Amino acid sequence: MNNLLVIGTQWGDEGKGKVVDFLAPAFDIIARYQGGHNAGHTVYLEGKKIVLHLIPSGILHPDKIGVIGNGLVIDPGSFFKELDDLKSIGVEVNEKRLAVSRSAHVIMPYHPRLEKISEAQRGKKMIGTTCRGIGPCYEDKAARWGIRIGDLLEPEILREKIEENLAVKNKIFEAFGQPTLEAGPIYEQYRKFGEGLAPFVKDVSAFLYQQVKAGKSILFEGAQGVLLDLDHGTYPYVTSSSSTAGGVATGLGLSPKQITGILGITKAYATRVGSGPFPTELKDETGALLARKGDEFGATTGRPRRCGWFDAVAARYSCRINGVDLLALTKPDVLEGLSEIKACYAYEYKGSKLKDFLADPHVLDKVQPVYRTFPVWEDSIQHLSNEDKLPAGFNDYVKWLEDELEIPVGIISTGVAREDIIYIKEKCSRLLGAQAEKLFGKH
Ligand code: IMP
After folding, report:
1. Which of 152, 172, 200 is the last residue before a domain boundary?
2. Which long-range contacts link 408-412 to residues 24+ away (Cβ below 8 Å)?
3. Residue of the CA atom closest to atom 5 of ligand 1
4. Do residues 378 and 395 make contact, with C-beta atoms less than 8 angstroms apart?
5. 132 and 276 inside one domain
6. Residues 6+ apart with CB under 8 A from 293
7. What CATH number should be reported for the domain holding residue 115?
8. For position 48, what pLDDT does the model report?
9. Pairing of strands 270-272, 306-308
10. What is residue 443's predicted lDDT score, i.e. its pLDDT?
11. Which of 147, 152, 340, 435 has the fewest CB atoms within 10 Å, i.e. the most exposed one?
12. Do residues 82 and 299 lie in contact, with contact meaning Cβ atoms separated by under 8 Å?
């Protein structure tokens, strides 16, 4: 059976939700391995916009099992809200359809508060985080102060851990002149969360191992993007988890050998939310036009996304460190309103041409992108679902991209709706193996 990883090759918001939503019917399990409710995976279903933050977007398909791995940080309040929201649109999620790792870490009420202090302390150098407590929760995990989902099910341990944490955290709040927190109410609230979560809690690693042994297939759903990875992104302007392919094994307790293919999602231009280097950023009217036409506002925070030209140097790096097999190109239709299209293929740095990305803000802040210019293709590609109808100018642009990245483009999104998508069957079939038959039938 094939187990496919879907990963964002830029700074997140590449349109992973829609691609996962299309591919999900061909897989048995959809598993997330990192991040938390900082993510926002948008899917349009019968004209309705649905944004999922924590629960894998494959859950919208009634016969699929969603998995939340140990690599995630979970805000239980947000988890239950998402279950309620799903119920309100007729998607029932019970313990047979969703498993939560007992080793995932819990975002506690002090985490977002600590994050606000940390961001304020940085001043002009603030990361521009989603302020959901993601970073401080991962900090506690690494510092071995963390409270895990399994702890919510053990009232005495939970109380002790909350008290131990507050003994330290309250000192920080005092030092910054902020009100301290009391253990009692937090304990009561989180104990109840534990009761609600209990049916979903599983040893996810053992569960997935058994499922793989039984011949089931898994779709791994990456969150954020490669360039926001804690180790390989533009540190310190990154998220606090491993969004690269390596995160799958540690974030689910599964052998890396189980990933049989990697699909990289690439937007036809670039966006970034929050601070940090962005060599191809457009701070002019073209950037504003991309933001408007592409509806580039954060799915989680509503913040406007910074927009810029496609950056093949950065995308090549992402594909290299993840071993991307196939690309899905999203939102190329957004470029149609422009007078010309540019794409960066190299950087000028200290008098020489760089073709390799260095994920270092000191370098990236000083590089000058080198662009190739393309005319806008002759006919619109919007809402197309058949590759034969793609205009020649668009095909030239895609060919250039494939040559630059040395990876084929097998999927092209042509609009926001579920059906606005083109699958180049030969290219997808090679990657999807047995799953291709389920999606496209025998051919
Ligand atoms: P954090 O993940 O909230 O700690 O934020 C760290 C950085 O990652 C900030 O620049 C955020 O804007 C960015 N970020 C976090 N999650 C997402 C996402 O799902 N899409 C895009 N950017 C994100």
Report:
1. 200
2. 408/326, 408/327, 409/326, 409/327, 409/328, 409/329, 410/263, 410/326, 410/327, 410/328, 411/19, 411/263, 411/326, 411/327, 411/328, 411/329, 412/328, 412/329, 412/332, 412/381, 412/387
3. 129
4. no
5. no
6. 334, 337
7. 1.10.300.10
8. 77
9. antiparallel
10. 45
11. 340
12. no
Query: Are residues 66 and 128 located together in one domain of the fold?
Result: no
State the distance from the centre of ligand 1 to the C-alpha of 116, rounded, in angstroms.
Answer: 14
Residues tagged active-site: 13, 41
* Boundary (domain end) residue, out of 200, 223, 252: 200
- Same-domain pairing of 127 and 259: no
The response to whether residue 127 sits with its C-beta less than 6 Å from ligand 1 reads: yes
Q: Is 128 in the pocket of ligand 1 (CB under 6 A)?
A: yes
Please compute the mean of the pLDDT values over residues 266-282 and round it to a whole number. Answer: 96
**Tell me: the pLDDT tens digits for 311-332?**
999 999 999 999 999 999 999 9
Identity of the residue numbered 164: E
Six token digits for residue 299: 């799915």
Q: Distance from the CA of 224 to the center of ligand 1, in angstroms? A: 7
Asked if 311 and 280 touch (Cβ cutoff 8 Å), the reply is yes
Q: What pLDDT sits at residue 303?
A: 84
Residue whose CA is at the smallest distance from ligand 1 atom 8: 239
Q: What is the CATH number of the domain that holds 404?
A: 3.40.440.10
pLDDT digits (tens, 9 = 90+) for 416-429: 888 899 999 889 88
| Nearest protein CA to atom 19 of ligand 1, as residue | 39
Across 188-200, average pLDDT: 98
- For residues 368 and 431, membership in a common domain is answered with yes
CA proximity to 71, closest of 162, 141, 153, 145: 141
Name the percent of the chain lying above pLDDT 70.
Answer: 99
pLDDT digits (tens, 9 = 90+) for 380-413: 999 999 999 999 999 999 999 999 999 999 999 9
If asked whether residues 258 and 403 sit together in one domain, one would say yes
Ligand 1 lined by 54 (C-beta under 6 Å): no
Instruction: Let me know whether 364 and 424 are in one domain.
Output: yes
| DSSP-H helix ranges across 56-154 | 76-88, 110-122, 134-143, 149-152
Q: How many A from CA of 228 to the centre of ligand 1?
A: 7
Mean pLDDT of 208-221: 96
How far CA 240 is from CA of 36, 188, 218, in Å, comes to 10, 28, 24
Tally the domains of the chain.
2
Question: Domain span at residue 46?
Answer: 4-97+203-440
- Residues 188 and 52 reside in one and the same domain: no
Same domain (yes/no): 301, 404 = yes
- pTM greater than the 0.90 cutoff: yes
51/62 Cα distance (integer angstroms): 17
